[in-house]
What we know:
Blueprint: H1 10-22, H2 31-38, H3 40-55, H4 60-76, H5 80-83, E1 84-89, E2 99-100, H6 101-111, E3 115-120, E4 123-124, H7 126-129, H8 131-139, E5 144-150, H9 161-176, E6 185-189, E7 192-193, E8 199-200, E9 206-209, E10 213-217, E11 221-222, H10 223-227, E12 231-237, H11 239-254, E13 259-260
Parallel strand pairs: 1-2, 3-5, 4-11, 5-6
Antiparallel strand pairs: 1-12, 3-9, 6-13, 7-8, 9-10, 10-12
Helix pairs in contact: 1-4, 2-3, 6-8
Amino acid sequence: MKDLLLSLAPSELRALATSVRTGRVLAPYSALSLQRFVGEDAAESVSRKLALLSASGMSSEALSVCLELTADALSSRPLLEDFVDLVTTGPEAGGVANRSTAVVVSELFRGAEHSVLIAGYSVYQGQKVFRALGNRMMQRPELEVRMFLDVPRIQGDTSSADALIARFVQHFKRSEWPSGMPLPNVYCCGHLITQGGKPGSLHAKCIVVDGKHVFVSSANFTEAAQERNIEVGLLVQSGALAERVCRFFDALLDESFFVRAI
């Protein structure tokens, strides 16, 4: 459970710090004396927390400093909307501020400098979807592009995994990748063996660019999903999250859940 002191507004913490430092509020910090600073609902819990800190040997001056430092830390935290964007496909509705899936995907591809990781379940009309990425690969030959793609198996098809992947690669090169452009490194998954021995599939849809931009969406890499369906995703600016997503796919690759196809 989150510490209640961390749930207080910075202004409340600073007012409380001043009152402790000037002696307007004294140990054992009764709930009644705190109500004017933190409100009646929070006063009892804050009282218990301050009393605990005081009993541990923390002086009023030290407690005041800690409250001020906590207020400064909370004030300096970036707002959620500063590093997370809502990304959607579909009609504009309700005045919700968001960004278009097709626009965001294209911007990510056009701005890639060093690396791109793509995971997708379904690819259709990919020549249009991936054109911006193909162009960027031509501009920056050193750009590392890795695609982790699911290989569908039609019900009743008893072909080997190698045969399925070979057919998939031929189709991908012919119909889904922009003609004449450098090919990405493609890793295919014919099927995943899940708990209980039942086959699963690569159902993730995400993009990681340059180890800092992470886009996770319900949208497949299809023209419909990018431009016409109702889809919802989040674009997050986080190096830590980007590193974890990449490590997840690296681990799957190390465990041979994927095979290099291109």
